[in-house]
Amino acid sequence: MNNVNVLTISLLAFGIGSFSCTEKSKENIKKKGWVIDFIDEFEFFNDKNWQNQLLWVNDEDQCYVRDGEYNTREVSNGSLKLRLVKLDYERSCSSNVSKFGKYHPETQYVSGRLASKNLQEFTGGRWTAKIKLNRAGEAGMFPAWWILGARNNEPPIQEDDENICWPLPGSGEIDIMEHHGTHGGHTGYVGRSILPIGTCDDGGDWWTNQVNLLSNLSEYNEYSVEWLGNDLVFRLNGKEVGRNIGIAGKLLEPMFAILNYAKISKDHMDGEWEMEVDWVKHEKWVD
Ligand SMILES: [Ca+2]
Q1: How far is the CA of 253 from the centre of ligand 1 (A)?
Q2: How many whole angstroms from 178 Cα to the centroid of ligand 1?
Q3: C-alpha span between 40 and 282 (Å, rounded)
Q4: Which pTM does this prediction carry?
Q5: Mind listing the pLDDT tens digit for each residue in 134-183?
Q6: By CB distance 3.0 to 4.6 Å, which of 166, 194, 207, 209 could disulfide with 244?
Q7: Which of 14-23, 86-95, 275-284 has the lowest mean pLDDT?
Q8: What's the gap in Å between 255 CA and the centre of ligand 1?
Q9: 157 CA to centre of ligand 1 in angstroms
Q10: Ligand 1 centroid to residue 238 C-alpha, Å
Q11: Are the beta carbons of 87 and 110 closer than 8 angstroms?
């Protein structure tokens, strides 16, 4: 063997050796446990993650508007702000339609609602958002962080399979952080999964699986829901604070995230109600 061949073989051997080494280290760093498969840290508004959702539900008082109109949405300094804003006049709201085809009446209140529908949808796993409110405990406040089955038939309807009415399987609902100002005081919020009662018209049972929880709403906290075996576990800053037992399998369907600030009553309010979101993420469990 001449020197050139020895060199070639050595180089080949070295090459093969380092290739195996690379494969091995790739194998070593392959993640296990909870792995993030979606995160939005709100460095900018990413329309690959979120779209406006305009509709009228729960007889809500506000009108959802698009794209941060009236300062209802802002992404700045690494966070999302959704605001319920009082205007000094009533504006029309025919863009918000109920499931019975009724148009929202004119209103002085406008707000933002974002959904990750058809953009970021996941089955099971764990959803978390880091959220704070500028104010809490005022009559009518109804900010929420929640997830909904991807086949839900409410607007925007963009694919043929979005034809299942709330809250039947395919259109299931899990509320991760919902603050009802009239009942929640300054620290109360709820988590829950909604139980379908039977048909579309029967609606859902939202009280059986409701867990009444406490947090310092005006400071940043991490609110999660996690599929754990056949249970749904609600977490506050990583700690279990509530559990819906034996229900998780019934909600193992692709779901999208919703962030919104509603006004659930006709009560008077002044100024702005704001929900600030530092980030939203979804994680999957890898064995
Ligand atoms: Ca879809």
Answers
A1: 12
A2: 24
A3: 9
A4: 0.89
A5: 999 999 999 999 999 999 999 999 999 999 999 999 999 999 999 999 99
A6: 209
A7: 14-23
A8: 9
A9: 8
A10: 30
A11: yes
Distance 176 CA to ligand 1 centre (A): 21
Distance 98 CA to ligand 1 centre (A): 20
In the chain, alpha helices (H): 3-29, 181-184
Fold classification of 34-286 is Jelly Rolls (2.60.120)
Q: Report the 10 Å Cβ neighbour count for 228.
A: 15
Give the helix/strand (H/E) hosting 79. strand 79-97
Query: Could you tell me the distance, in angstroms and rounded to a whole number, from the CA of residue 208 to the centre of ligand 1?
Result: 29
Residues flanking ion ligand 1, Cβ below 5 Å: 118, 159
Q: Ligand 1 centre and the CA of 270: distance in Å?
A: 37
223 close to 236: Cβ distance less than 8 angstroms: yes
Structural domain boundaries in the chain: 1-30, 34-286
Q: How far does the centroid of ligand 1 lie from the alpha carbon of residue 12, in Å?
A: 50
Name the band, by pLDDT with cuts 50, 70 and 90, for residue 22: low
For 39-98, the pLDDT digits (tens) are 999 999 999 999 999 999 999 999 999 999 999 999 999 999 999 999 999 999 999 999
pLDDT tens for each residue of 112-131: 999 999 999 999 999 999 99
